[in-house]
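User: Some background: our group keeps a shared notebook of sequences we're curious about, and every so often someone picks one and asks for a predicted structure to add to the entry. Today it's my turn. The entry only has the sequence so far, pasted here. Could you supply the structure so I can complete it?
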Amino acid sequence: MNTNIHFNTQHSPIGAFASFTLGAKGAKGGLGLELGKPADQNVFIGIADGESITCLPFFQETADDSARFDVEAVAALKRVVPRPWADNEIRREFAAGTDTWRAGDLAFSIHTPVMPAPEPGKVSEKDLRLAYVPALTVELTVDNTRLKKDRLAIFGFQGNDPVRGMRLVEGLEKITGIASGDTLAIASDSPGVHSALGFSVEDILEESDPFNHSFGIGGVGLLVCRAKAGKKQTFRFAVCFHRAGRATTGLDTRYHYTRHFSDIESVASYALENFSALKKRGDAFDKKLAKAKLGEARSFMLAQAVHSYYGSTQFLECAGKPLWAVNEGEYRMLNTLDLTIDQLFFEMEMNPWTVRNELDWFLKRYSYTDTVRFPGDATEHPGGLTFTHDMGITNHFSPPQRSVYEKSGLHGCFSHMSHEELVNWLVCALVYAKQSGDTAWRKKNLPTFQKILTSLLNRDHPDPAQRDGVMSLDSSRCAGGSEITTYDSLDVSLGQARNNLYLAVKCWGSYLGLADLFSAVGDKKRAAIALDQARRAAATISATADKNGLLPAILHENVESRIIPAIEGLVIPHALGLKKTLSPDGEFGALIAALRRHLRGVLKQGICLFSDGGWKISSTSNNSWLSKVYLCQFIASEILGEKPGKAGAAADKAHAAWLRDPQNSYWAWSDQIVSGSAQGSKYYPRGVTSILWIKERNHA
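Assistant: Of course. Here's the predicted structure to add to the notebook entry:
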């Protein structure tokens, strides 16, 4: 196992699109608001005893900023400057709800809320404030029990906002703090703590006159704690974020938390007053994770993924109505629908209402009706209802029926995902309706489900007699190009939507879900049509297996690539409780057997395994997506009954090592790992597909 502990982790309030990122060495973390990357600030956490200043290694030396003002100053005598603890002096205890660093006589703990996000109108205002306060609780402990003199402990950062300077938090009784403008702050109400500004840590610690603590030109802000001789003391802090007023363009929204907190001072005051309750918000999830006994590698990956998911969440209000948005990591696209389906499992576990909210906004503003074409033929045939790839980017909601991503006339990245997103919305809707038991929502949207069935049929073939359950036509929005899948940056094996094996199995699962839904509401005609389509899809897929039992990545087109995500669609009937459809002895036993043989055939070195044992989602691409690997691992074990064994343990070890590798660890959790290197989809929320591991019965 890669034992590197210096990986960045996002610590984030729920729905604040904010992160106190920490872990990588140097100025590679800090307090970030609405960023697609770490804030790249110097963060100072350490102990000073007059002879030395020793800190955790989250800073780098910078030029003396005072020289910008006193340009003819004589160089000062060498002073005591911060030095980092050596690697062998540092220990880290990492989980989803807590992250603790220990070095020397210091312990530093960050508490992250991993809890259900409550729905407005369903819980009290008190519960909403507790869940959505844009703040984190932090504790710093200094053990002076062996010493006969006081020492100073420090916690602070060097601001790097070109617009908002550093300042002291003022006007709060018994609370001291530092802030960057009106958006970022660290505050404390612990006795023996004062705040100060200066050009550097040493400037602040050498300053003897309290009047000078508010020196406003300095870019470094510290909370300085006096740790008494002979005592072990814990100082508590609130790391706070706030964005007042209008939050986005395109749609006029504001953060939900602004209902409760008018400014960052009110955030700090509330967080410190309710410190104990806020600190406990991740305890239940940590206990659940420990109980699951996933092993070190999987526990680390799940915890890291959960942290990065919350770092991308943005709980907004539009005209008084809630709008739940998940930003797409480094890309900052809003509610990318092909991520929504993978984050579905986590949101259904924690807060199903957010799934309904995302579905409703897509249907209301980001759905459209198109026509479809066969490749190379300009003739337009009826298409139907479908959905855009996303809702916007960088705090801007795109116009109705438009994404920011999709362009016409292309055959690869940035083309349309009309069929993919149609299936994704449908699956999310089917799973939400079934698992939540929200029959009122299902009834309200029954006309939408009917339209979706028609749209799926039309994208198969305009002639009912020639339908095979698989997508054969591209949206007219492609304008001569061709549709792609969520695997947009891969080669044709997963990038092309038409006749794609991955998408074909998802269509099979979707038809089964529609048949189940229509049966439940007494629509026998549509249920029969959907079931017939599922049967056609299963027969089409099974018939393409070669003599070795391997299925082609693209059906009927002589593409020799082999893919692991062939099995991805099996999770749909599983999530819907349609166990008989997954039985080897059931109606679709031939398809289940074909997919099991295929999986066994591709999980080999040189096909879909890297040399380190990690999973390679396509035999013809070195770009492997961890979120999809996690999902397929669950399907392989829980649905297909393939015991992970030693090969599974080796894969988990390899996947965790990819994230911990120093070349990748700056980005916290990343999805697209190319030959072990994070090349895309960094600082990303999609890894919470790993929540399914908790439900997996056989981890060994």
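Suggested note for the entry: Residues 9-64+79-246 form one domain. The chain has two domains: 9-64+79-246, 293-695.
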